[in-house]
Specification:
6 strands, 4-stranded mixed sheet, two-stranded parallel sheet, alpha/beta
């Protein structure tokens, strides 16, 4: 299992490193994997490792569930976080969702409804090594899956 993880990490990193450029805005999964999905966490970690090396700005979504909240809380910063709010293109989202459904990778509910807009935060840097007396909340879009 660990060997599979390392192999997949290296493959994703190699492919993304060839596609990303300095100055780009790159939008990806949150470090807590939105609802705790391990593949989402891995993609985030790959991009985090490339961010400073290449010089792009890394943005993450603000989705979170009760399952992933404990991990998300580890990323609460010592200072307030800024974020951007962008309109959602539901037609494009549906096209992407259809690819996921067709390939058996769709993990949202069948009746998922797109929001009118989404919030994205600049991705946190690696977690601070020393505890701070007070952490600031990030704007989180909490939702539940199945239940």
């Amino acid at each position: 299992m660990a060997a599979d993880y390392r192999r997949n990490y290296a493959m994703i990193r190699s492919r993304l490193a060839d596609q990303l450029l300095a100055g780009m805005n790159v939008f990806t999964h949150a470090p807590w994997g939105e609802y705790g999905h391990e593949d989402h966490v891995q993609v985030y970690r790959v991009l985090e490792s490339l961010r400073d090396e290449i010089g792009f700005t890394l943005w993450v979504s603000n989705y979170c569930t009760e399952r992933s909240f404990p991990l998300a809380a580890r990323y609460f910063p010592a200072t307030p976080v800024s974020y951007v709010r962008l309109p959602v293109d539901p037609d494009y989202c549906e096209q992407v969702a259809e690819v996921y459904r067709r390939t058996g990778c769709w993990t949202w509910t069948d009746d998922w409804a797109w929001f009118d807009d989404e919030c994205f935060m600049e991705a946190p840097r690696s977690r601070e090594q020393h505890p701070v007396p007070q952490r600031h909340l990030m704007p989180l879009n909490m939702f539940a899956i199945g239940g």
